[in-house]
Amino acid sequence: MQTLTQPDFKSQRFKANPFPFYARLREEAPVFRIKVPANEAGWLVTRYDDVNQVLKHGGISKDRIGSMTPEQQAKMPWFFKFFTPLVQNMLSRDPPDHTRLRALVHKAFTPRLIERLRSRVQTLSDSLLDTAARKGSMDLVAEYAFLLPVTIIAEMLGVPPGDYKKFQHWSNRLVSNTDMSDVLLSIPSVVMFTRYLRKLIAQRRTSLGDDLLSALIQAEEAGDKLTGDELVSMAFLLLVAGHETTVNLISGGTLALLQHPEQLERLRKEPGLIEPAVEELLRYASPVEVATERIARDGVTVSGVTIPRGDLVFAVLASANRDERHFKDPNTLDLGRDPNKHVSFGMGIHYCLGAPLARLEGQIAIQTLVNRFPNLRLSKPAESLKWRTGVLMRGPKQLPVKLT
């Protein structure tokens, strides 16, 4: 058998089907050492129970700088300073800062408030599909899976519609990093994104509205709840996380259905199945392949392997979601799967705040699409599709489909 080597997250072949590699890791090396940008040590954790341990472990931190030894901090590359303004958010903090920051935006993402968005999401889905229907075909990623969630989160934050494409480019650049050259090439996007957010915040200060960004500005102005850098970073996180994962859920979920026509037909015949169907698509397609990096605060033992202090830890959600120790027939798409305790939204205190919104958007977008177009099909062979590269996300880059 071929020796296990570090996965190539830039490889189209790997991104199209990483699951056999992860199955080998679960069996042979469930805690697998890799090298990450700046030649730091990192560890891929692939079994379901171990991923849960990592996501909930108090000794594994999200505060990368604060958890490093002084020697490790001294070795940080010079260009990391450019990223500092964008990592002052709840995703990159531990309690008590995490608790404080999450509380500021939690009220905007409760299931009850998200449910109020249902009619807007439905109207927008219908409008986007009206446009596509007139052509008879579309790139489902660019013309539907992207436009739906990005419009909703931008409206929630009060971002001008003309700016969507701009921050999509910056966002894609930032979540696609796999090596040092990618990190260096993303610096202009970091600088432009940071500058854009500071300008947007300055404009909003003079004209507050009832949007989420205005609420965050008012919290910052109220005193010690939010600093200026935290405001920029929270806006960044909400914009990026508010659309990137849902793009992959809608596009990757639709692709999975098209590749399993019996399940697609089942969903058409049983519309009440949409909620468990989306949970299964979240598990099967794993829109977030690998959780954002964590760092060992002290030596941490996972599956008998000790991860030294300061090493990066990557919980592979896509692998945990296919772990045969936890899921029956994990490589089978079963829209009625029950139970289905996938980890696509994470676990523990960093569980995805936007999960209710992503679920709502996924359910409406996919059900509306498949019900409206009974002849929906790929315009090119699935094996020729291009996939997004990078460690974190997994989804097709384009998904050309015929509608009639």
Automatic annotation (TrEMBL):
GO terms for molecular function: heme binding; iron ion binding; monooxygenase activity; oxidoreductase activity, acting on paired donors, with incorporation or reduction of molecular oxygen. Keywords: Heme, Iron, Metal-binding, Monooxygenase, Oxidoreductase. It comes from the Bacteria. InterPro entries: Cyt_P450, Cyt_P450_B, Cyt_P450_CS, Cyt_P450_sf. Belongs to the cytochrome P450 family. This is Cytochrome P450 PksS. It comes from Archangium gephyra.
